[in-house]
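Posted in: Protein Modeling Q&A

I'm a second-year student putting together a small comparison for a lab meeting, and my supervisor asked me to include a predicted structure for Beta-glucosidase. I've never done this before, so apologies if this is the wrong subforum. The sequence is pasted below exactly as I got it from our records. If anyone can share the structure token output, I'd also love a short note on what stands out.
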Amino acid sequence: MNSVKLSLFFLVLAVGGGCKTQTETEPVESFFFRSAMVDNQSSPTLNFRNVSSKPTIKINFSAPLDRNSAAKTITLTDSKTNTAVALKYDFSGNDTTVTATVQNPLAAFTSYKLNVEPTLVSQRQTALNSNISINLVTALDSTDKFPRISDSLLLDLVQKQTFKYFWDFGHPVSGLARERNSSGDVVTSGGSGFGIMAIVVAVDRKFITRQEGLDRLVKITDFLKNKTKTHHGAFPHWLNGATGETVPFSQKDNGADLVETSYLMQGLLTARQYFNGPNASETALRKTINDLWDAVEWNWFTKSGAETNLYWHWSPTYNWDMNMPIRGWNEALITYVMAASSNTSAIAKTVYDNSWAQNGKMKNGNSYYGIKLPLGPANGGPLFFSQYSFLGINPHDLTDAYANYWEQNTAHSLINYNYCKANPKNFSGYGENCWGLTASDEQNGYSAHEPNNDNGTISPTAALASMPYTPSQSMQAMRFFYYKLGDKIWKNYGFVDAFNLTNLWFADSFLAIDQGPIIVMIENHRSQLLWKLFMSAPEVKKGMKNLGFQSPNL
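Accepted answer (user: helix_wrangler)
Welcome! Here is the predicted structure, written out as tokens:
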């Protein structure tokens, strides 16, 4: 009896031990994303750049996937158009890893988003605990976008195509340069000065005939003399190209802009020296230019001679309220050269020393990337500092009490190049082929880009207008811009104003003050044409000597 009871006891124990009570359940599965790799590269932020056109995207999870669910919930789309990209899915690691590969090559320089929906489930039908987004930006398509030509022909092409901005797009009434390609009747005085110098290049390069260039300059100068509203002989920054009325640049900047006026006069004097023929038309052009030149009351901008500072603005309604002395180092050296060279109202050397040079305070003397910078802010500032004034002023062997200007401009350009090459902020595209920071459009506005104000925006004019100072580096950039990025940035008027490869942004704008220096500085590199012309003006020779400049060209 006892043995029977014992057997029954063990039988019940065996059966009972193999069953779950009502309170027992399966362990809860934790299903979550672990990691992602694209082309065998990882990124803690899930942002991948320079991705190949047929990338391998590997995503790892904490539990085996339901394969059917994965195919429905893991998708790749073009970030801009939201177009879906066909994927092929492979599984490994006991189905904890899915590898997605594209069926057709992705477009270059394009942003894509791989999304993993939270409706993805594991093999045990556990839902993913969160949405996963992986951002991919494809790499540059390194193929040439245009047939290779010689560097000399490429320089011709860039100058000729860029010139169209001033020739084909010049204002139909005044012939002046529109401020930008979307500005309608708004033309720019300084940009028109650059455009006048571009016309001289176009005549000399035979892009247009001498007569065509002369006719356009007659239209421009007649409009400036007879229709444009000036302020003590100086021109506003912007004006209406049809009526000549001042267009305010800002509320109080609704009158004279002396710096922009100096750019205009730089161009006019250069044209005067070029169109030196004895015929009646060229003689009349020179007279009109001289009338415009002699009308500017340069010394009046020292507040009627009361100060040893030269002031940038004057307003007929706000007078001197903007109160901005023109001080260096920046783009305005030409203003002092013009003011000292005037036949009618020249400034004294004391104004140059006190206001511009601040009696030596504009000196730098520090080294950046192993390059000593004589003047200006840390790292040199935006590259237009070394370009706008030197469209006409020849910096070769040019010195004064403060600097050797060839050394200054070359150092500035090389620092900018080396900064982009070092790429301390790790922006996409920066390097020896893609460099150049200056004032230009950017994705959401306009800014003076430079090493201390860098958001990844490259401006083609920066490197191209540095051609005299950095010929090999600038030529390298030109080849890259044309052959490699040409499908994005080469348009009807040359290269667009700017681009940002980090943000995959390409401007659709062109600005007169950026297009002009490309043409002019390339020509100064090739033939020194504009330097020779401007420096041949007797007033310029006298004015620069009076300021203390020394050069074999004076």
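A couple of things worth pointing out for your meeting: Residues 1-23 have pLDDT under 50 and may be disordered. The radius of gyration is 33 Å.
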